[in-house]
Amino acid sequence: MKKFKKVLIANRGEIASRVIRACKELGIKTVAIYSEADSQALHVKKADEAYLVGPGPISGYLNINRIVDLAVNTGTDAIHPGYGFLSENPEFPEVCEKRGIVFIGPSSSAIAMMGDKIQSKKLMKAAGIPVVEGSDNAVLSEDEALEIAKAIGYPVMIKASAGGGGKGIRICFDDGELVRNFSLSQSEAQKAFGNPEVFIEKYITKPHHIEFQILADNHGNIIHLGERDCSIQRKHQKLIEIAPSLILNEELRQKMGESSIMAAKACNYRNAGTIEYIVDKDGNYYFMEMNTRIQVEHSVTEIVTGVDIVGEQIQIAMGKELDIRQEDVVMRGYALECRINAEDPRKDFVPSTGKITAYYSPGGIGVRIDGAVYKDYIIQPFYDSMIAKLTVSGRTWDETVRRAARALDEFQIKGIRTTIPFQLKIVQDDDFIKGDFDTHFIGERQYLRDYKLQRDPFDKVLAISAAVAAYYGI
Q1: All residues at 6 or more sequence positions from 419 whose CB lies less than 8 Å from its CB, including other chains
Q2: Which residues are catalytic?
Q3: Residues 240 and 303 in one domain
């Protein structure tokens, strides 16, 4: 194994800080990149070196050649892509390889293969892994979509072939909805991913969204680290994640774990990845997609297994053989992660920007914060709205939920709106505490819908501030 001396992190926010932390524990120097809008970001302050990569807020983070040039010029051994931005762009590892830089992640071919939802579904089906019934290829017209929907039966989902993050998805319950939504999904897919292709699949009602974390080295060893339940979502985007799932028994866990390893073998996968499934009320599971990168919610798996997933990513890329075998993986207790987003739940989760006037993070036993902000930090409108992750753990599910409520109540971020009050309501919900939830949990609760209609004293403060500013011409 050849140890890296220096790693460049081609990302920002909490994941950049998380990778820096892992590198420091391994004795590896770090290089951060930033835009002008990000010059005061935490990852810039924490890295050993930091360099401006572009005048615009986004373009520098997406410029493959500029980033790789910087890695070469700074004597960097490897690049960690984090998540988002270039992390699932198959061109990135190709350019790294040509320039003699190690890409901390899977091969270009694996990224391309599993990034195409249509092709990955075909591959999984051929490997004997259950998939949701639907179209085998891109659906090019409304008429073709109607034919497929008639064959498999409503409800159906229109999904972007190159999609992710809930973008390009439309649920349709009849022909009229399918016709209305088809071109909208294509437009959203083109805008979000540069690819308008969509496909149709059967919509599984009231499912659980379950994903399995895998690690695969360069010596043929592949293991899974158990599952995460990501069913608490809004607009198909995860808000709370849990490990392990409350609905899986040991038999189903073993079957899904074996399927996940089979999926990794089918695409000759290396490094860390996640296999995502839909699980119906009868315990049937179906492959949904593979994320060929580190996941936001990796922290819950780290806590219940004791495995440093980011550290393993780096060491796998250095050529180290996994020293963890499947029989060594034991999940202890429970962990729950809340994505703390700078969003206003009262206004349909519209992003909230501005200066953070106060920041008090929770602490105590079983509390972990992965943060990207601090007092006086200014939330910009250019980036993803997640500003921190709160992960709590306990010996039992009941202890974990109570700890989550306590920690959310302690967590104070002032000056902007956040999802904290909304998430506090969820973890105090009796059905959530009992484990009675699925992907429809938020949409089915009237009190959460009513939450958006409640008046808040902060609105009055904002109105007064705006009036004063207008009066003085500020």
Answers
A1: 239, 338, 339, 340, 341, 343, 345, 349
A2: 293
A3: yes
